[in-house]
Amino acid sequence: MKRRNFLLHSLLLLCFIVTAVSSYGYNEQFVVDGIRYFHLGYGRCQAIGLTDTTEVVRIPDVVYDENQPYRVIEINFGTGLPLRNGVVYCPYWLEYIWPESFRHKDLVAIYFQENESIEEFKIGGNTFVHNHLREINFPSNYKRVMNSTFFGCDSLSSIGWSENIWSIDQWAFYQCSSLTEVHLPDKLEYVHFEAFKYCPLETIWLSRSMKSISDGAFNTCNLVDVQHVYAPTGRLAACSVIKAGYNQSFEGKNGVVVHVPVGTIDLFEQSEGWSSYELQEDASLGEQHKVMLTVNDADSGMVSLTGADLFKDRVWVADHGKAVTITAQPQGNCELRCCIINGIDVSDQFDAEGRYTIDAVNENTEIYISFNSASTFTPFTIKQAGSGHINLQVYHNEPLKLNVTPDKGWVINSVTVNGIDITKKLDGNGDFTIYKVDGGIVVGSGPSRVPIGPSQASSVATEEVKTFVAFEKSTDSVNELFSTGTIKVYGSEGQLRIEGVNKGETVRVYDTAGRLVAHKVGNGGSLTINVPSGIYLVQSGNTTIKIII
Fold it and tell me: Which CATH number fits domain 23-162: 3.80.10.10, 3.40.50.800, 3.40.50.1100, 2.60.40.2310?
């Protein structure tokens, strides 16, 4: 009884599966307008052949079977009848043409449709072997010419390339005996073994993206002499080619002329494989310049160039007048130390994303970039007696810049750094800078930034610095009338006014370091002298007055 129930359930399950498969159209064939189709399921089908010989085949985008629509996504005519001087119009949803689908089918033309929703359209190898195609125009989503695809297409004389083709496989256009010129697409990277063998090529335009040309790729086997090869960028000098022997990449009994952009002939002359050909700079290909990139401490950051083509390690080539963007990305606990372009430091011109753009490359350009560890600040100690305050600016790999400002009614008594009195080195604004030179500490006024190049030693304080600042009460009131001796001095923002100066008597103004800042000769009245804010000594005759403005 149990066995009988089991068999019954199994039979019912089998009937259900058969019914389901039938309803979805799996493994079924049907014919529409002389074309045989095969169900692929999920509303898709494959065109698998013709019911009769014909001249024009129009494969529809969508076909119907039992009132159900099916997109035609594949062509597989391997077993179908031949065409007669045939022309094929491909469907919009076509994704793949199977290998050998049109082998020996007497095909003279095939037309594809653009469909951006299909990421990649593929044609299998050996698909058009020994047909009579006169021209071929690929859709933009066609990316690779498989092996022997157009083998022996003796009438093919024109190729409309897809801009996205990156590889032409071996024997792809073998013995296309009407093909005299090829202008390869810019994104093409590889031309494989004997891809154009027995093609009577006279002129070859290489792509800008070419990485490798395999043995005998353009070997005409003496059907005709290759006369001209156009290499549109100096980067191609790094492309591997075979320079001699039966399987050389370019064959020409009278010598092949390789045309290169102005400014790049030395790259080709120094590259193995190209020096055996006659090289000529050709202005029609434009002018290019070398961009040499050196990165110090490369493990501390990543550098890339946009707008230039990599020739080989550290050497790039860029079109004349073209903008080139440098992107420098520090890694880990590191930062950009410097970027020097043809001797000019542009480090402070990088944007927040780590980019700097050379607006136009008009000459050979050398770029030096250096990274180093970030935020290893100098140990720094400040002791301060009242009354005043200190401003300190600390930047990695830059001098230490300090400003000492007394409170109102106070003046600077002394400033010492590591026990050395440097009070007289303060400028008129109370600023001073600490540098490190030859392993020692140097203090002085001046710019807060010291450029650091590849051949320059660091001028940065990196050892411990101890600073002591003392203030004292001013014996004179600040920004008020001074009445010492025969003269009176008034201080206001950016200006000194001195009264009571005898005619012909010289008034001298000094800063706290004892430097003469200004002087004027009296005319028997008042004098006005413009000076920046700071601490000054005003001297006339035997009278000296200290004032802060």
Answer: 3.80.10.10
CATH 2.60.40.3080 maps onto the chain at 488-548
Cis preceding-peptide flag for 212 (omega within 30 of 0): no
Local structure of 16: helix, strand or coil = helix
- The pLDDT tens digits of the residues spanning 237-253 come to 888 665 444 446 665 54
In 332-399, beta strands by DSSP E:
334-341, 344-345, 355-358, 365-373, 380-384, 388-393
Q: How far is CA 124 from CA 172, 173, 537, in A?
A: 11, 14, 93
CA distance 391 to 403: 5
Q: Which segment, 208-217, 233-242, 451-460, 521-530, is predicted with the most confidence on average?
A: 208-217
Burial of 2 (C-beta count, 10 Å sphere; 0-12/13-18/19+): exposed
If 0-12 CB within 10 Å is exposed, 13-18 middle and 19+ buried, where does residue 392 land?
Answer: exposed
CA separation for the pair 362, 359 (Å, rounded): 10
Query: What pLDDT digit, counting tens, does each position of 138-189 carry?
Result: 999 999 999 999 999 999 999 999 999 999 999 999 999 999 999 999 999 9
Question: Whole-angstrom Cα distance, residue 197 to residue 151?
Answer: 10
Tokens at 363, concatenated: 């000459």
Residues in Cβ contact with 503 at an 8 Å cutoff, skipping those fewer than 6 apart: 522, 523, 524
Phi then psi dihedrals of residue 370, to 5 deg: -135, 140
User: pTM for this structure?
Assistant: 0.62
Mean pLDDT of 368-379: 67
